[in-house]
Design goal:
The chain folds into 2 domains: 113 residues, no CATH class; 182 residues, 3-Layer(aba) Sandwich (Rossmann fold), CATH 3.40.50. The chain starts with 11 loop residues before the first helix and ends with a strand. Helix content is 45%, strand content 18%. The protein is of the alpha/beta class.
């Protein structure tokens, strides 16, 4: 008997995601577009399971289906030379809505991503792959960035690691005499990092973090990139309340990535120097102490990192 969910029509939320991601990625390389299609498939399959409570079949909204529907949307784009496929009525309507008001439809897509839990999908990946992620990252040498950061933290000062992962950086700061706390949104990584460091790593999402104390340093290495751009801005602005005057906030973000889901179902946000300048301009609490770029410490050729240290200048 066939699974009716493999046959049902595409709904508005699905087509909005397809249209927005098509226009966002249409000028990228075929490899990057392929990764985006894989990410869309992962998201829509997870969405369906959330809505129905039933595992989807192997062919439901799989990569081939996403690629086919994206090709239909491409034929509706007047800037292309493609005309071999007929878009559906719903696709035509939403493409026209996008062309009339791209910001509105992009915002609708972001709401859909939020509705079905981009954070939950990302956290699920780290829980399911915690052991491998721990092994892959625990010995990565981050000493250059750590040492640049602790120049701005008083000796023995209080540091919190936001998104501690394997606990590698927690241990580095602890071994240098700092009073260290840590949080992570993955229960499994909290367990592994606690075992590794001997410091209790609190299970908590970044968005829910609201401490009762202030810190001399806040370290957010490769963690904010899983938030939306508005959430990143909100975090940077709010944590000034948790920093001592003269204290430092460190952030690192992958450069050159796409907004959206990767093939593993993890959500990523692209963040630039311009974004930094805009956020700092909105706040009187910080000055940019350092901003620099680094190659990937895990030797991934296509990955570079934006590193930022913000200094708390007034209360």
């Amino acid at each position: 008997m066939s699974d009716k969910r493999t046959e049902r029509k595409w709904d508005r939320e699905e087509v909005v995601i397809l249209v927005v991601e098509y226009f966002r990625t249409k000028n990228l390389s075929s490899e990057e577009i392929q990764k985006t299609h894989q990410g869309i498939s992962e998201f829509l399959r997870n969405r369906e399971e959330m809505l129905t409570g039933v595992p989807v079949s192997d062919i439901f909204r799989n990569y081939a289906g996403i690629h086919m529907q994206s090709s239909r949307i491409r034929c509706l784009d007047s800037e292309t030379q493609y005309s071999g496929m007929q878009g559906t009525k719903l696709q035509k309507e939403i493409v026209q809505e996008y062309l009339n008001n791209p910001d509105k439809i992009t915002a609708e897509a972001e709401q859909i991503y939020e509705k079905y839990g981009k954070n939950n999908m990302t956290i699920s990946y780290y829980n399911q792959n915690a052991d491998q992620y721990f092994r892959d990252t625990v010995d990565v040498d981050m000493s250059e960035c750590c040492d640049r950061f602790i120049k701005y933290v008083i000796p023995g000062g209080k540091i919190i690691d936001i998104g501690a992962g394997s606990g590698r950086d927690v241990k580095y700061f602890k071994d240098r005499g700092f009073d260290v706390e840590a949080i992570d949104a993955s229960e499994e990584l909290c367990r592994l990092a606690t075992e590794y460091t001997g410091i209790h790593v609190q299970y908590e999402k970044i968005q829910d973090w609201s401490p009762s104390r202030v810190y001399d340093g806040i370290w957010a290495n490769a963690s904010l990139l899983h938030l939306g751009i508005d959430e990143i801005e909100e975090f940077i602005c709010k944590v000034s309340d948790y920093l001592q005057t003269g204290g430092a906030l460190y952030i690192s973000i992958k450069k050159g990535i796409n907004n959206g889901y990767d093939s593993n179902g993890r959500f990523f946000t692209s963040f630039s120097e311009e974004n930094v300048q805009q956020i700092v301009a909105k706040s009187t609490a910080y000055e940019i102490a350092e901003l620099w770029h680094t190659v990937d410490k895990m030797n991934r050729d296509e990955v570079q990192w934006l590193n930022l240290i913000l200094k708390r200048i007034k209360k």
